[in-house]
Amino acid sequence: MDLSNLQPAPGSVKRNTRIGRGPGSGKGGTSTRGHKGAKSRSGYSRKIGFEGGQMPLQRRLPKFGFKNINRVEYKAINLDLIATLAESRSLTKIGIEELRQAGYIRRGQLVKILANGSVSAPLTIEANAFSAAAKAAIEAAGGTAQTI
User: Fold this and answer.
1) Which of 31, 44, 92, 109 is a plausible cystine mate for 19, CB 3.0–4.6 Å?
2) Which pLDDT does position 18 carry in this prediction?
3) Phi then psi for 102, rounded to 5 degrees?
4) What pLDDT, on the 0 to 100 scale, is given for residue 121?
């Protein structure tokens, strides 16, 4: 085998149907577009949501709600998850980077520590936000909760 006898696999290359090339081609005349109407004209493109002149769904339904541009989205991490991470890796300080290396958060995510579970060992925990109950539970165990 050499480069001079390479060819595509059988059936993989198909010729395009040439339309509008006279009546002998079988695809002349209206060029498969039918007679009259918007779809037969050149430059036609159907708008998104167009329903043939019927009032479109997005205009039939009422408008509601809004998007708060000041919303801050946090990834919730519970105390029981922090406790298991500290025990498994024998850590005394847990921050954003430790949570990211463990695969609990992605880069750039903000973290809020919630109070589901308990912490027995004194830990230094750094996060973007803490619930009041989580902060109290961390300090009750002898640890510190540092807001970044």
Assistant:
1) 31
2) 93
3) -75, -10
4) 87
Name the burial class of residue 68, with classes exposed (0-12), middle (13-18) and buried (19+) by CB atoms within 10 angstroms of its CB: exposed
Three-state SS annotation for 69-92: CCCCCEEEEEHHHHHHHHHHHCCC
Cα distances from 73 to residues 50, 79, 109, 132, in angstroms, run 36, 19, 8, 18
| Beta-bridge partner residues of 130 | 113
Residue 41: strand, helix, or coil: coil
| Residues 113 and 130: beta-carbon distance below 8 Å | yes
Neighbour-count burial for 40-58, b at 16+ CB within 10 Å, e otherwise: eeeeeeeeeeeeeeeeeee
